[in-house]
Design brief:
Layout (H helix, E strand, L loop, with lengths): L1 E6 L4 H12 L6 E8 L3 H11 L3 E4 L5 H8 L5 E4 L1 H9 L4 E4 L7 H7 L5 E4 L2 H18 L2 E4 L2 H9 L8 E8 L17 H4 L9 H9 L1 H14 L6 E5 L5 E7 L4 E5 L5 H9 L13 H4 L14 H11 L3 H17 L7 H16 L9 H23 L1
Parallel strand pairs: 1-2, 1-5, 2-3, 3-4, 5-6, 6-7, 8-9
Antiparallel strand pairs: 8-10, 10-11
Helix pairs in contact: 2-3, 4-5, 5-6, 6-10, 6-14, 10-13, 14-15, 14-16, 15-16
Bound molecules: nicotinamide-adenine-dinucleotide (NAD) and magnesium ion.
Magnesium ion binds next to helix 7.
């Protein structure tokens, strides 16, 4: 029986993963090792009971008593805190879903690679902050990383049976998010509620706001570069409001292979869960005649400066991705807290990169996870200082 763990089980990706695990037989089909979550311990406990998990871990120490109470009599162990998350990752599992949000997801996923199984990677921050390190760790332990971002799953599927040397370009699509059609001058006054309203995908709040600013697509550019090893110049972003074509791969003969599907993350999660086979998935089927047409346009650089920043990060490489992600997380937190405006986020990220570039050579490759985490912490401090200056 296949053993599984889900990090970030109570989030948007985590819930979709749980749904598929239950539909594919639940505890009769999978031996669940660890499930982790945050403050929603009632939901974490319910999932752990349903799947008969060995251990349930909340990221917050103060939530442990509630988690214990919710698991009473279930036989599921309860644990809390960052060290417990790593301990959960040390428990061998054949298939591990990495769906914690943010840089916090890096260390548990990295640790799980040691077992040489499959890491289903939704946590794009892992590739953005530490791509080469993560891939080297996987290779060292004979582990496999399968992409769970919809665009990267689409590219992966379009590449099946193909020679990567024949790839001319990779095109990832973007819905354009909440502000795709807003007049530019209105963006500076955009509120958190307005940015949290995605036109096509139902996702967690943070990635939804990142879709409106295109920081999500910026991260995905870097993710594409790291995961597939293609040159930045070969990667394009195309705005596609319908979110039906998730990515396209162009080959040397001019052929473009597109991946189409309903905007439902259970598609990419289910592909990673059943790979190399395809299993029936409960996703809506497309009715192309009813859709009538699909549209595409080039992204507007003034509306979405994050895309240009991602290109700079891909040029710098090394630790630049860790700085970019950390600054982006601080900028997003500050926007959500009402401290900075929507259009200030890109300036903050750019300012943080500029400051960090002069301090150290960001192009130096990270040689350890600690180095990445230290750079992450430094970049957060720089970004927070920049916000402090702006408020004065
Ligand atoms: P979410 O906010 O809905 O859920 C995040 C999960 O991580 C929750 O279980 C939460 O409790 C946990 N978590 C949050 N902070 C944590 C911390 N500091 N330590 C430990 N656990 C913590 O996020 P999501 O939308 O499901 O996204 C998860 C990841 O998948 C992200 O990296 C995101 O970019 C990626 N992703 C999401 C989608 C989507 O449709 N939601 C699509 C593609 C990629
Ligand atoms: Mg995506």
């Amino acid at each position: 029986m296949r053993s599984i763990s889900v990090f970030g089980a109570t989030g948007s990706i985590g819930e979709s993963t749980f749904d598929l695990l239950m539909r594919q037989g639940g505890r009769a089909a999978f031996r669940t090792v660890a499930l982790t979550g945050g403050r929603n311990v009632a939901r974490l406990a319910a999932q752990a009971r349903a799947l008969g998990a060995e251990v349930a871990v909340t990221a917050h120490d103060d939530c442990l008593p509630d988690l214990r109470a919710a698991l009473a009599g279930s036989g599921v162990e309860a644990a809390a805190g960052a060290a417990a998350l790593l301990e959960a990752a040390d428990r061998p599992a054949d298939w591990v879903m990495s769906a914690i949000i943010g840089a916090a997801g890096l260390a548990p996923g990295f640790r799980a690679l040691r077992h040489g199984g499959t890491l289903a990677l939704a946590n794009k921050e892992s590739l953005v902050t530490a791509g080469p390190l993560l891939l080297a760790e996987a290779a060292r332990h004979g582990a496999r990383i399968l992409p769970v971002d919809s665009e990267h799953s689409a590219v992966f599927q379009a590449l099946a049976g193909e020679d990567i040397a024949a790839v001319e370009r990779v095109i990832i699509t973007a819905s354009g998010g909440a502000f795709r059609d807003w007049p530019l001058e209105r963006l500076a006054r955009a509120t958190v509620a307005e940015a949290s309203n995605h036109p096509t995908w139902a996702m967690g709040q943070r990635i939804t706001i990142d879709s409106a600013s295109m920081f999500n697509k910026a991260m995905e550019l870097i993710e594409t570069r790291e995961f597939f090893g293609v040159n930045p110049a070969q990667i394009e972003v195309l705005v596609h409001p319908e979110s039906i074509v998730h990515a396209l791969v162009g080959f040397a003969d001019g052929a473009l292979m597109a991946h189409l599907g309903a905007p439902d993350m259970r598609h990419a999660i289910g592909y990673a869960l059943n790979w190399p086979l395809r299993a029936a998935l409960p996703v809506p089927r497309l009715d192309l005649a009813a859709l009538g047409q699909l549209s595409f346009r080039a992204p507007d650089p003034l509306r979405w400066p994050a895309l240009r920043l991602a290109r700079e990060v891909m040029e710098l490489r090394g630790l630049a991705g860790a700085v970019f992600n950390a600054a982006k997380e601080v900028a997003l937190d500050s926007f959500i807290a009402g401290q900075v405006g929507f259009m200030d986020m890109a300036g903050l990220v750019e300012g943080t990169i500029d400051k960090m570039v002069t301090r150290q050579s960001l192009g130096n490759a990270a040689t350890s996870l600690d180095m990445v985490l230290q750079t992450d912490a430094e970049a957060r401090a720089v970004a927070r200082a920049l916000i402090g200056q702006e408020k004065d």
